[in-house]
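for the record, two folds in this file. i put them one after another cuz i was lazy. first one right below, seq on top, structure tokens after. the second one comes after a little note so u can tell where it starts
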Amino acid sequence: MAVELGTFGVWSQAQLWVGAGDAAAELEQLGYRTLWLGGSPGGDLQAVSDVLAGTRELTVATGIVNVWSEPAERLSATYRRIEDEHPGRFLVGIGASHPEAVGEYVKPYDKLVSYLDELDVPQDRRILAALGPRVLKLGADRTAGAHPYLVTPEHTATAREVLGVGPVLAPEQHVVLETDPDAARALARQSIQLYLGLRNYTGNWLRLGFTEDDLADGGSDRLVDALVAWGSPEQVAIRLHAHLTAGADHVAVQVIAPQGGHDPEAFRELAAALF
């Protein structure tokens, strides 16, 4: 593809990176190759511009722009501007969010298709948020590939089968750097609470073999342990590599920090185990 993602990247909320070029530069120096900016960023994507301006080779990807709230025409214009300023370093990630968040959420697959028809961004410079097989296939056919969120290595293996050889597979992985099981699971469980009420995520977990009991009461230990990699940096690194073994090309690491926000020390510790 035209954009180099590298093996490991960082997933973080976009609003944290407006004017944060120095923090992004440290991630680049540590060895992380891509910064994924989440939280449905839109508009002029100022955080993307700021990160690119503050780094030399780091790729920036949106993870993801919501197709229901950001007009394709405006995103196309923003892409062209950023591409002119920083050639070859921006990957446009788009997705349909979830039905609970969008009042007009009807036939998301059709919305994705029409949005891709309107989006004036080269196929190899856009990637699709995808969980189920139909949207994964759309990502393979119409974009560079797929960016699944909050998934397991088992899902990665299934996604690779659907995508086939060639399309990019870049899953996101929640991470908690904590070795005490109770403390780690408490933080991990807190991080997935929102998604336990969103049927596109719960449906995906049920397809993977989890049960309604696993989804109840804040999530079972089995579900929490499967979705969130916790432990020492070395233990977490093993889980991240499991995605690569299962067929991922790149893994986007989201560190869940006790204090919230970006945790530079956690990424330093993890980098020592990864690179």
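(here's the note) second protein begins now
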Amino acid sequence: MTDVPTTDEFWRWPATKLARAIAVGEVSSREVVASHVERIEAVNPKLNALVDVRPDEALAAAKVADDMVAAGVELGPLHGLPIAVKINSDQAGYATSNGVVAFADEIAEKDSVHVGIMRRSGAVFLGRSNSPAFSYRWFATNDLYGRTINPWSAAHTPGGSSGGASSAVASGMVPLAQGNDIGGSIRYPAHACGIVGLRPSVGRLAHSLYPPGQDQALSTQVMAVDGPLARSVDDVRLFYAGMAAFTDPRDPFHAHGASAPALPKNPRRVGLLRDVGAKAPSAVVNQSLDTAAERLRAAGYEVDEIELPLLEEAWRLWYLLAMEEFRVIMPLVEQIGDEGMKKAAAAYYSCAADWWGEAPGLVDYMNGYARRGTLISELGQFLQDYPIVLLPASAEEVFEQDADISSLERGREVVAAQWMNMAIPLLGFPALTVPTGVANGLPTGVSLLGRRFDEESILDAGTVIESGTGILTPIDPR
């Protein structure tokens, strides 16, 4: 075959191409994994995106995958592909450290729901991706493993909390990485590193974030999701299919195989939302939105400027419901968390106090959840007229490292710039982040918000936007 490269080039291939080649025996999983191991050895010392990499285990798993191909057995969507797992997800035999020194030896006895599903889909796990302590910042640094670097710029964040995942994918260490998102932790890292990230509808993919015997906070149950990060929309589709292939009774909210809602009257109508009053988008962000809108119009989409103030309310409401629940573990954070997490939390609570007071009570909390249901209904109705909303991935360009803790004032600006990253999880709808280009040496991008259980519509629109950008990664660290 003329298009099969030497082993050291497999790390450049798209996941979709690798999956097809492995499935038909054109290349071996072992060759593919070996190529990615070499890439990790070359760039991970500079980026610190992956921790606890065990090449021998990965190569042994790849050999099993190759034996299955040779035996002609039925293969899963992710068969033989190297994939990174986030350090806040249980992977049997590995520490679920969540970036906390005190949890460094918390070895998982069994896979979490989503890790088990990826394994059943054929994934070969190659390294654990770094995150901030407690996975609660848009910056990937902690006292246990140190700082993860953005391959585009060491001075800027790779995003968080799935920042190790985004840096690893963008630099070619793995073609696919798993992340989770309760406040932009898939979408923002994808944006920061110039790749694609999908936050599915709540209930679309089975997942779990806490070990057996621990109760999940209500906000985690109804807002958090797991999802894929990859270098292209097609690769995200592949990973999404692999994560959707199986169910697990441990997830009480999983709606396996839930069908998309009936097509609206105008399925190609897009609402362009620039601002909800939290923070005006920068010139670069506005240009990214204009670029995406132009590409969608050229492909036959109708794009109208809209206002959607309910998302501003949802953004503020997140800081009541999620942060009041997080307050329960703040004594633990104060005891074992790192200084970065403590300072970031101070900025979050400072903003929350502006809206909800210093000590919201039970009635505030109950009324907040009641209001959440109303906002979900209102957004669902709005999306009947505009089934896709085009909006910023952040109101600012990629943040400088530690922007959230450089000062309380700057931390509050970061919170305001990320309004969309809280509003969407609070309501449980799907969203996709896709690159639009490069400005000032950093990737630019936009987000697409869609109807619940209608991931396909935003993936289709993302493909259109991506077609004008091209695939920006993998890149060497700069």
